[in-house]
Amino acid sequence: MASTADISRGMILKLDGSLYNVVDFGENKTARAAAKVWAKLKGVDNNRSIEKTWNSGETIFPVRVEKKAYQFLYKDESGYNLMNNETFEQITLSEEMIDAPQFLKDGGEIFVFINTETEQPIGAELPEKIVAQITYCEPGVRGDTATRALKSATIDTGGTVNVPLFVEEGEFIRINTKTGEYVERVKQ
Fold this sequence. Notes:
The chain is an all-beta fold. The protein is built from no helices and 16 strands. The chain has 3 domains: 2-60, SH3 type barrels (Roll); 65-125, CATH 2.40.50.140; 129-186, CATH 2.40.50.140. Helix content is 0%, strand content 53%. The chain has a 5-stranded antiparallel β-sheet with strand order 9-8-7-10-11, with no helix packed on it.
Protein backbone atom coordinates (compact mmCIF):
# COMPACT_ATOMS: atom_id res chain seq x y z
CA MET A 1 0.00 0.00 0.00
CA ALA A 2 1.20 3.45 -0.85
CA SER A 3 -0.11 6.99 -0.63
CA THR A 4 -0.37 9.78 -3.18
CA ALA A 5 3.00 11.10 -1.95
CA ASP A 6 4.63 8.04 -3.59
CA ILE A 7 3.36 8.71 -7.15
CA SER A 8 6.06 8.98 -9.80
CA ARG A 9 6.25 8.96 -13.59
CA GLY A 10 6.26 5.46 -15.06
CA MET A 11 4.56 3.93 -12.01
CA ILE A 12 1.76 1.49 -12.82
CA LEU A 13 -1.40 1.82 -10.73
CA LYS A 14 -4.46 -0.39 -10.38
CA LEU A 15 -7.71 1.62 -10.65
CA ASP A 16 -11.17 0.08 -10.95
CA GLY A 17 -9.72 -3.29 -11.99
CA SER A 18 -7.56 -1.85 -14.80
CA LEU A 19 -3.87 -1.00 -14.98
CA TYR A 20 -2.70 2.54 -15.78
CA ASN A 21 0.75 4.01 -16.38
CA VAL A 22 1.44 7.43 -14.77
CA VAL A 23 2.39 9.80 -17.62
CA ASP A 24 2.41 13.04 -15.63
CA PHE A 25 1.41 14.14 -12.13
CA GLY A 26 1.31 17.20 -9.92
CA GLU A 27 -0.16 18.78 -6.82
CA ASN A 28 -2.71 21.57 -6.52
CA LYS A 29 -2.59 23.57 -3.29
CA THR A 30 -5.13 26.21 -2.40
CA ALA A 31 -5.28 28.50 0.62
CA ARG A 32 -8.54 27.14 2.01
CA ALA A 33 -8.85 23.54 0.85
CA ALA A 34 -6.64 20.52 1.36
CA ALA A 35 -4.04 19.75 -1.28
CA LYS A 36 -5.08 17.58 -4.21
CA VAL A 37 -2.83 15.28 -6.26
CA TRP A 38 -3.63 14.81 -9.94
CA ALA A 39 -2.23 12.39 -12.50
CA LYS A 40 -2.54 11.83 -16.23
CA LEU A 41 -2.84 8.10 -16.74
CA LYS A 42 -2.52 5.93 -19.86
CA GLY A 43 -4.17 2.52 -19.90
CA VAL A 44 -1.81 -0.46 -19.97
CA ASP A 45 -4.43 -3.16 -20.55
CA ASN A 46 -6.79 -0.83 -22.44
CA ASN A 47 -6.19 2.14 -24.75
CA ARG A 48 -7.84 4.76 -22.55
CA SER A 49 -6.17 7.91 -21.28
CA ILE A 50 -7.70 9.46 -18.18
CA GLU A 51 -7.00 12.06 -15.52
CA LYS A 52 -7.53 11.19 -11.86
CA THR A 53 -7.51 13.43 -8.78
CA TRP A 54 -6.98 12.26 -5.20
CA ASN A 55 -6.96 14.08 -1.85
CA SER A 56 -3.40 14.38 -0.57
CA GLY A 57 -2.44 11.32 1.49
CA GLU A 58 -5.06 9.00 -0.02
CA THR A 59 -4.15 5.35 -0.59
CA ILE A 60 -3.16 4.23 -4.08
CA PHE A 61 -2.49 0.72 -5.35
CA PRO A 62 0.78 0.44 -7.31
CA VAL A 63 1.51 -2.75 -9.23
CA ARG A 64 5.02 -4.19 -9.12
CA VAL A 65 6.40 -4.63 -12.60
CA GLU A 66 9.63 -6.28 -13.75
CA LYS A 67 11.46 -5.20 -16.89
CA LYS A 68 13.04 -8.18 -18.67
CA ALA A 69 15.23 -8.26 -21.77
CA TYR A 70 13.88 -10.26 -24.70
CA GLN A 71 15.01 -10.82 -28.28
CA PHE A 72 12.67 -10.30 -31.23
CA LEU A 73 12.52 -13.48 -33.32
CA TYR A 74 9.83 -12.99 -35.98
CA LYS A 75 6.33 -11.70 -36.69
CA ASP A 76 3.46 -13.88 -37.88
CA GLU A 77 -0.35 -13.80 -37.82
CA SER A 78 -0.40 -14.48 -34.05
CA GLY A 79 1.79 -11.44 -33.28
CA TYR A 80 5.38 -10.62 -32.39
CA ASN A 81 7.35 -13.64 -31.15
CA LEU A 82 9.96 -12.87 -28.51
CA MET A 83 12.49 -14.99 -26.58
CA ASN A 84 13.67 -14.36 -23.02
CA ASN A 85 17.47 -13.84 -23.09
CA GLU A 86 17.99 -15.74 -19.81
CA THR A 87 15.49 -18.65 -19.82
CA PHE A 88 14.98 -18.93 -23.62
CA GLU A 89 11.22 -19.03 -22.99
CA GLN A 90 9.18 -17.71 -25.93
CA ILE A 91 6.13 -15.44 -25.75
CA THR A 92 3.90 -13.75 -28.33
CA LEU A 93 2.74 -10.13 -27.99
CA SER A 94 0.17 -8.25 -30.05
CA GLU A 95 1.21 -5.11 -31.93
CA GLU A 96 -0.77 -2.85 -29.56
CA MET A 97 1.39 -3.97 -26.61
CA ILE A 98 4.65 -2.77 -28.22
CA ASP A 99 5.76 0.86 -28.34
CA ALA A 100 7.15 1.71 -31.82
CA PRO A 101 6.98 -1.76 -33.46
CA GLN A 102 8.02 -0.20 -36.80
CA PHE A 103 11.60 0.04 -35.47
CA LEU A 104 11.84 -3.61 -34.37
CA LYS A 105 14.66 -5.55 -36.10
CA ASP A 106 15.03 -9.33 -36.38
CA GLY A 107 17.25 -10.34 -33.48
CA GLY A 108 16.87 -6.89 -31.89
CA GLU A 109 16.56 -6.28 -28.17
CA ILE A 110 13.20 -5.39 -26.64
CA PHE A 111 12.22 -4.90 -23.00
CA VAL A 112 9.02 -6.59 -21.80
CA PHE A 113 7.16 -5.38 -18.69
CA ILE A 114 5.76 -8.25 -16.64
CA ASN A 115 3.14 -7.89 -13.89
CA THR A 116 4.66 -9.76 -10.93
CA GLU A 117 1.21 -10.59 -9.47
CA THR A 118 -0.05 -12.46 -12.54
CA GLU A 119 3.27 -13.13 -14.34
CA GLN A 120 1.61 -11.82 -17.52
CA PRO A 121 3.30 -9.40 -19.95
CA ILE A 122 1.62 -5.99 -19.91
CA GLY A 123 3.69 -4.14 -22.51
CA ALA A 124 7.02 -3.79 -24.25
CA GLU A 125 9.36 -1.05 -25.37
CA LEU A 126 12.48 -0.81 -27.49
CA PRO A 127 15.75 0.68 -26.25
CA GLU A 128 15.61 4.49 -26.32
CA LYS A 129 17.90 4.73 -29.36
CA ILE A 130 18.55 2.21 -32.13
CA VAL A 131 20.80 2.13 -35.19
CA ALA A 132 19.20 1.42 -38.57
CA GLN A 133 20.31 1.44 -42.19
CA ILE A 134 18.53 3.57 -44.79
CA THR A 135 17.27 1.35 -47.61
CA TYR A 136 15.60 4.08 -49.68
CA CYS A 137 15.47 7.87 -49.78
CA GLU A 138 15.25 10.56 -52.45
CA PRO A 139 18.46 12.45 -53.19
CA GLY A 140 18.77 15.81 -51.41
CA VAL A 141 18.44 19.09 -53.33
CA ARG A 142 21.43 21.43 -52.98
CA GLY A 143 20.76 24.94 -51.75
CA ASP A 144 17.59 24.02 -49.85
CA THR A 145 19.16 24.51 -46.41
CA ALA A 146 17.81 27.86 -45.22
CA THR A 147 15.62 25.96 -42.78
CA ARG A 148 15.98 22.55 -41.24
CA ALA A 149 14.78 20.73 -44.36
CA LEU A 150 13.88 17.08 -43.98
CA LYS A 151 13.08 14.25 -46.38
CA SER A 152 11.41 10.90 -45.83
CA ALA A 153 13.62 7.80 -45.68
CA THR A 154 12.76 4.10 -45.42
CA ILE A 155 14.91 2.07 -43.02
CA ASP A 156 15.77 -1.65 -42.96
CA THR A 157 12.92 -2.44 -40.54
CA GLY A 158 10.35 -1.10 -43.02
CA GLY A 159 9.58 2.03 -40.99
CA THR A 160 9.97 5.58 -42.26
CA VAL A 161 11.87 8.44 -40.63
CA ASN A 162 12.35 12.08 -41.59
CA VAL A 163 16.06 12.75 -42.06
CA PRO A 164 18.13 15.83 -43.06
CA LEU A 165 18.86 16.35 -46.77
CA PHE A 166 22.54 15.35 -46.48
CA VAL A 167 21.72 11.78 -45.36
CA GLU A 168 21.91 9.29 -48.23
CA GLU A 169 20.75 5.78 -49.03
CA GLY A 170 22.92 3.03 -47.48
CA GLU A 171 24.02 5.12 -44.48
CA PHE A 172 23.42 4.10 -40.88
CA ILE A 173 21.51 6.48 -38.61
CA ARG A 174 20.56 6.58 -34.94
CA ILE A 175 16.83 6.95 -34.23
CA ASN A 176 15.04 7.91 -31.01
CA THR A 177 12.34 5.21 -30.66
CA LYS A 178 10.25 7.30 -28.23
CA THR A 179 9.76 10.18 -30.69
CA GLY A 180 10.54 8.43 -33.99
CA GLU A 181 13.02 11.17 -34.89
CA TYR A 182 16.45 11.10 -36.51
CA VAL A 183 19.29 11.72 -33.99
CA GLU A 184 22.57 11.42 -35.92
CA ARG A 185 24.56 9.56 -38.57
CA VAL A 186 26.55 6.56 -37.39
CA LYS A 187 29.84 5.32 -38.87
CA GLN A 188 29.86 1.55 -39.43
